[in-house]
From TrEMBL:
<feature type="transmembrane region" description="Helical">
    <location>
        <begin position="506"/>
        <end position="533"/>
    </location>
</feature>
<keyword id="KW-1133">Transmembrane helix</keyword>
<feature type="region of interest" description="Disordered">
    <location>
        <begin position="764"/>
        <end position="787"/>
    </location>
</feature>
<feature type="transmembrane region" description="Helical">
    <location>
        <begin position="330"/>
        <end position="347"/>
    </location>
</feature>
<feature type="transmembrane region" description="Helical">
    <location>
        <begin position="127"/>
        <end position="147"/>
    </location>
</feature>
<feature type="region of interest" description="Disordered">
    <location>
        <begin position="1"/>
        <end position="24"/>
    </location>
</feature>
<feature type="transmembrane region" description="Helical">
    <location>
        <begin position="192"/>
        <end position="209"/>
    </location>
</feature>
<feature type="transmembrane region" description="Helical">
    <location>
        <begin position="367"/>
        <end position="386"/>
    </location>
</feature>
<feature type="transmembrane region" description="Helical">
    <location>
        <begin position="398"/>
        <end position="420"/>
    </location>
</feature>
<keyword id="KW-0812">Transmembrane</keyword>
<feature type="transmembrane region" description="Helical">
    <location>
        <begin position="440"/>
        <end position="463"/>
    </location>
</feature>
<keyword id="KW-0472">Membrane</keyword>
<feature type="transmembrane region" description="Helical">
    <location>
        <begin position="553"/>
        <end position="573"/>
    </location>
</feature>
<feature type="transmembrane region" description="Helical">
    <location>
        <begin position="255"/>
        <end position="274"/>
    </location>
</feature>
<feature type="transmembrane region" description="Helical">
    <location>
        <begin position="286"/>
        <end position="309"/>
    </location>
</feature>
<protein>
    <recommendedName>
        <fullName>Integral membrane protein</fullName>
    </recommendedName>
</protein>
<dbReference type="InterPro" id="IPR029058">
    <property type="entry name" value="AB_hydrolase_fold"/>
</dbReference>
Amino acid sequence: MERAREHASTGEPDTPAQRPTAGGAALELLVHGVGGTTPEVMLNDPRTVRVTGDETAAVYRRVDDAEAERRPEEHRDGPVREAYVWCNLTSGNGTRALWLLLLPFMVVNLAHWMRPATRGRTRTVRLYGLLVRLAALSLTVLLVAAVCEVALDLTAWQCAGTRACAREHTWLGFLSPTVSGGGWWSQPGRRLALAGIVPAALTGLLWYLSHRTWSAYESHRPMSRTAEPAEETGRTGLGRPGFWYGRRLVARLRAAHAAAGFLTVAAAVGSSAARHDRRPGGPAVLEALGALLEATLVTGAFFVLWVVCRRGRSENRLDKELDHVLVRRLPVGSLVLLVLTSVYAGWSRPGWRSTGRLPGDLTFGAIAFLQGLIVIALCGVAHTLYRTRPDPRTAMRGIAGPAVAMLACALGGVMSGGVSQRMADWLDGTRDSLPGPPVLLTWQASAIPPLLLVLLVLGGRLARHTWRLREREMAAVALDHEGQPRDITRTRRIAGARAMATLTDLAPVMTGVLSSVTLLLGAAALVGAFATGDAPGDAAHGAYGFVRGGAQTAQALGSWLIGFGFILFVTWGRRAYKDPAARRTIGILWDVGTFWPRAAHPFAPPCYAERAVPDLTWRMATWIRTTGGRLVLSGHSQGSVLAAAAAWQLKPSVRKRIALLTYGSPLERLYGRWFPAHFGPAALTALHHEVACWRNLYRPTDPIGGPVLLPGDCGPQVDHEPLKDPLAYGRTEQHPLPAPILGHSDYQADPVFDVERAWLLSRLRPDVPAPRPQDGGSQGSSGRSSG
């Protein structure tokens, strides 16, 4: 092991003396998938030892195999097995459920990587990334504005300035001019300055957590190497030297988003004071200071936009430098401006009274309008990119990225509107003494019941589709097991598992419908709010009085549903980190989302692959360099994605010495369709040619894994025929008890797994990779005798 570390640190090239001999050692490096597991389960041995790594991610072996390289004669019957355990990168204690509050940030970051595959079009690709970064910036502003709405408008401005509300909530008594008798904090500007601490603290917390999580998860540098000429063709960026090290961009976006948050708080604190000072008869000095602060805020906002728009990712090399000190100090400068604005707002203005609500309607309306424009523009750019290289397997014909960005904006709107509505109801109750949150948030709440109705319709159609497909699959299952005693219950269960597994392929349809309906409902809410200037129930009064009751009911129901959904969201998130079954249920979305680097939003949850991929790359490269043996990279589910990404990061000479075994793999079914620019047919075909050999196993009952479906003769060489699931239909001598329907789990229980692993090892010659079969033999072991 020490030799491996020495070679890893020096980065010496391969030499002929290090090439394997005919009896070279063989290693199988196992990478688990979604939900995680333990090394004892992966290695099927209660006694394991950590070979390398730490408590977060590490490589383990059986105790008996700890020094296998020193005793190769004891391991000639099969490969030495190692388990790379990375589940602690995405799971842990229940406090990590708070990361689910960052879900809109994660989803919009996901949209960045859903760009369609294209030929050339460098400027259009950059425009796509720019639009996603702007959508991400709008979500940060929306979140901070929502907290400002709760803390500044509803609490400090409206409730503290109303006698009934302040008396009901005694903890606000020192802020109320009617309760405290005109104390020092009772002036509106001072109340706003004090309440501004809450959104400012939230922004600072996100800033700190982004820096801390990057240091903990994403600061591990990949192996230094030069870019290969093949990588410049644009097949995939996953093999570029700097793909898994985005230090400079994350630091740049982190500074810009933190500054945007502080500037939003400063605008919320100082805008009302500046508007008050512009009234006739006000002090000229304060009016001039207000104008100066507003001009400075506008200048800071344009500078933040310039920082976000100026630069995207740099992947052709390790980008170890940081931006100019002016960019790095941008959050500090914005925080200083916030302090100056608070001092200005807290200046004594004896005749100032808080009435009505703060100008939040314009703010939330402008954010919603800009987000809609960005999504529409993103659709046009994505469609343009898709036309250069159309692929029918691409999800939603290239506009999956804009659809997901729309859902991220909708999530942000629902969360911000829900918090505002719940806080207003809690402060005011049924007294109707407060103006309440901005009208647009009320209209957005009334749009939630129609959206839920659409979800129910979609759920009904999916249930109907699944039932019909199960009926068709029953005939197929009966045909597969023809000649065996008929068991209708057993047949129905197998057919039902196959039918349920196909629901994954309908995700593009559901996403397209939801994003379209969300866009239309959001536009209707925006038009309704600004056309009427009233809440839905009030706007329906008069000529449309017959819908007034329905509109009010929808608004009230939507408000309660937002609050209930928020509680359910956090509860399920916490359970997902404590209950393995719950984690497997929703883990695929989370692990897909946090697989990708933070290229659009710096406050998204950390990317575990920026630790896992370098770990696997270093382990494979150093082991092959020091032992010269044969290596099978064995990945299940999400582990197969990590395995492919790590293989792309190896040097070509090392890449040709490994075999790839994937099972239950979403490489094509999820990643190839939703992320075609990085896992499309061209990228996966290139991977097939660049590794020594590759086999992929899947089941028709697996809802996540599927065939790789490479074009031409590559497909049969990679994809094994669908595995039997269950292994036995009825009771047999080998299976005297009913065999379970395995679905996505326990692929190693199938005898085909050992056969395919042994065949891959036989293909790894000691000097050069074995030639590929030309007959495309894919039917289990029967076509392997010539391998």
